[in-house]
Amino acid sequence: MFKPKMCDTCCTPLEPFKSFALGTVTYGHPNWVGKEWDHDPVPVPKDPGRLRGICDFCSADYPSTAFETAKAILMFDGPVTHVFADAWTACERCAVHIRKRSPHLLIDRAVAVLPGTLNRPERQERRKEVKALHMKFFAAQPYEVGL
Fold it and tell me: In whole angstroms, how far apart are CA 61 and each of 15, 91, 117?
């Protein structure tokens, strides 16, 4: 659907954002809690030799496998639509929950390891966001493809 891109500066996979109002696609850094990006994204085609490997579910380094979904996942954020159509990388701890089809255990893990210092209401709000995305991931029929 969208060509996968990475940031040429930090080698992090970028997320596509489609503005239906403007009809354009832009790429931005992932919205990781506790992570402030010190540069603007510089989108370039993904280069597997340079790409920084992270778990798409908990942001841990060194993913061990990947999952694709039978359907693309759309998340709406005001006028911007986030489209998730690429493979999702997973560390071994998250992959176990995906293979067992245990969305709530996966959500618990993702929220438990969030970087930064969130207070209880912020953590609950973040859990709602993570739950919405991860439940759509499971509804999109994930299957393992490996790295």
Answer: 18, 8, 20
pLDDT tier at 72 (50, 70, 90 boundaries)?
confident
DSSP 112: H
- Give pLDDT, residue 1: 60
- Give the CA distances from residue 44 to residues 20, 47, 54, 102, in Å, rounded to whole numbers and listed in that order: 23, 8, 18, 35
User: Reduced to 3 states, what is the DSSP secondary structure of residue 99?
Assistant: helix
What is the C-alpha separation between 54 and 15, in angstroms, rounded?
14
Residue 41: both structure tokens together: 């994204």
Q: Phi and psi at residue 43, in whole multiples of 5°?
A: -65, 130
Across 9-38, b (16+ Cβ under 10 Å) vs e yields: eeebbbbbbbeeeeeebebbbeeebeeeee
Residues near 60 by beta carbon (within 8 Å), at least 6 away in sequence: 54, 91, 93, 94, 113
pTM above 0.70, yes or no: no
